[in-house]
DNA sequence: AAGATAGCCAACCGCACGCTT
DNA sequence: TAAGCGTGCGGTTGGCTATCT
């Protein structure tokens, strides 16, 4: 028997949120808090399902969200965490206050993945793809990286399954599913042994990548200037798209000064999304 | 100038998990 | 103990914008 849908979806609005909807949702949450997402749209007067409201709040409306592009330091930290945690975006996001898992996931898929590919870094093991493999006659580097990624993605699915098994076993033993335990699991697990070297060894992935970039700018063509990667948000004008979102956010916030004041004095100020009550 | 293509990101979907009854 | 339910999570999609031809 399959799960029932979270809502009947009949008569519910979908697609992009309007400023009016945002205001309704934010006003409601700031004044009433979140007790049950399913009830939120009804009580707030929104024609959305609770799930959609939750997503909108977490990814866009939350007052503690950090906006703007990722810094080089953040990017490198994401890469390091990904080598340890894999595609567990919420875990990775928990290391970045004010960033959402969706944001990090999108950034990984659109920027970092490409960057690593161009640098010849394996997207799963986070190890450099061997020079011998890269210099195979008649085959360009990108093709090799793509093939490698494809094969490793299959491997990663197996690895993830194994990892889940280990996690399950660990939970059965009453253990916690936190990063520290993942690290210790690395020591006993073949599947993560490749990452252990990166994690516990002397290798600094961030500086290594930077070094690669410096060494390879002549041999690789970047789709973006390195500077843009390095720090799109500092010392530069935001992109039009960024500006647009900032503008809309600002104009939206102008209507909510009172609410923010209320929020700053409320129990919801600076509380991470995951500490909001989970159940009704 | 106009159409094609690529990049980006907000939002949706479906499954998994954990709590309650 | 099993079923029901709400929420969290990761993968995917769709639409908007920018860039290229």
UniProtKB/TrEMBL annotation:
It is found in: Nucleus. Residues 9-61, 62-116 form the HTH myb-type domain. CDD domains: SANT. Residues 9-61, 62-112 form the Myb-like domain. Residues 149-182 are annotated as: Disordered. Gene3D superfamilies: Homeodomain-like. This is Uncharacterized protein. Keywords: DNA-binding, Nucleus, Repeat. Residues 151-176 have a biased composition (Basic and acidic residues). Coiled coil: none annotated. SUPFAM superfamilies: Homeodomain-like (SSF46689). Pfam families: Myb_DNA-binding. It comes from the Eukaryota.
């Amino acid at each position: 028997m399959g799960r029932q849908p979270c809502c009947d979806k009949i008569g519910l609005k979908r697609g992009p949120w309007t400023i009016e909807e945002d205001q309704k949702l934010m006003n409601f949450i700031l004044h009433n808090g979140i007790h049950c997402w399913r009830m939120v749209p009804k009580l707030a007067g929104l024609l959305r399902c609770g799930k959609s409201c939750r997503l909108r709040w977490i990814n866009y409306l939350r007052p503690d969200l950090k906006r703007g592009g990722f810094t080089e330091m953040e990017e490198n930290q994401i890469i390091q965490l990904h080598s340890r945690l894999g595609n567990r975006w919420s875990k990775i996001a928990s290391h970045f206050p004010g960033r959402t898992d969706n944001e990090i996931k999108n950034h990984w898929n659109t920027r970092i993945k490409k960057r690593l590919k161009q640098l010849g870094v394996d997207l799963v093991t986070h190890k450099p793809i061997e020079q011998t493999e890269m210099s195979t006659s008649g085959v360009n580097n990108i093709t090799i990286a793509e093939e490698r990624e494809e094969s490793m993605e299959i491997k990663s699915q197996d690895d993830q399954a194994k990892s889940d098994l280990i996690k399950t076993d660990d939970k059965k033993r009453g253990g916690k599913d936190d990063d520290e335990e993942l690290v210790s699991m690395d020591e006993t697990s073949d599947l993560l042994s490749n990452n252990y070297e990166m994690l516990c060894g002397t290798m600094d992935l961030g500086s290594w990548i930077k070094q690669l970039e410096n060494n390879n700018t002549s041999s690789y063509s970047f789709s973006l200037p390195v500077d843009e990667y390095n720090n799109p948000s500092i010392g530069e004008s935001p992109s039009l798209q960024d500006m647009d979102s900032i503008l809309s956010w600002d104009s939206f916030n102008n209507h909510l000064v009172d609410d923010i004041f209320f929020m700053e004095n409320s129990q919801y100020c600076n509380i991470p999304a995951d500490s909001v009550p989970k159940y009704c």
